[in-house]
Amino acid sequence: MNLPPFARSQRLTIVSGILCFVLILVVLQLWLLTATMESFLGGSDAIVVPAALASIGCFALNFGLLHFFLRKLDR
Amino acid sequence: MKTDDPDHVSKSPDGRDARLQPAWREQFPVDWPTDDFRSRRDFTKLLGLTSLAFVAGQLWIALLSLRRRAKESRSLPETEIASVAELPVGGSKVFDYPRSGAACVLTRVATDRFVAYGQKCTHLSCPVIPRPERNRLQCPCHEGAFDLATGEPIAGPPRRPLPRLRLAIRGGSVFAVGLEEGTL
Asked: What is the CATH T-level fold of the domain B76-179, as seen in this structure?
């Protein structure tokens, strides 16, 4: 998809938005990792796979945003 | 990167020119003037890598979980641990299972019912002591207590149940035949 060129001020807003979103997702992944580790060390394996899938989903979203940021917006 | 700034005072350990140094020395400079402020772009890239590292951590836990399940499903040896006549109702016996040094405790809770648990408290590994008259296993270190019938924690600091052994009674003897799933 060809995006119209953004003005510098628009790009700054978009980049800040992406940065905030990526930061929230990374904090979510950190929480997932600690909760999974806690549960695993407590002898329960029930949430290991769902948490891994959720973390992969977060990374995919981050990767998509970074791709947009670096390849489309940052041309 | 070498600058003419008087604050640029450090020299590389090997004394060679800054341009001949490995890239990481440029990325992590000692002198303030050679340090660039990280841009939003760099920070966002770093967050992307952090996100990947968290995924790697999750996958590592999943791998450990699979290994643990495989280990649990492997059959443990069947070991004779006591004779039925040896223990009166309310009596207990300490034994090692599945290997030497892994202390467990067997308790006869009724004429036809035995229970056995790992003896290490799940709080800080003190040995638990059966108290059949109070229907619990007591940890003397921090006054933790576990239900004698299920091994679940009922008082004190422990939050996890004791590992429970599967038992079989054959020919007047009590055998340990494995560990209950999810209790280790």
From this structure: Rieske Iron-sulfur Protein (2.102.10)
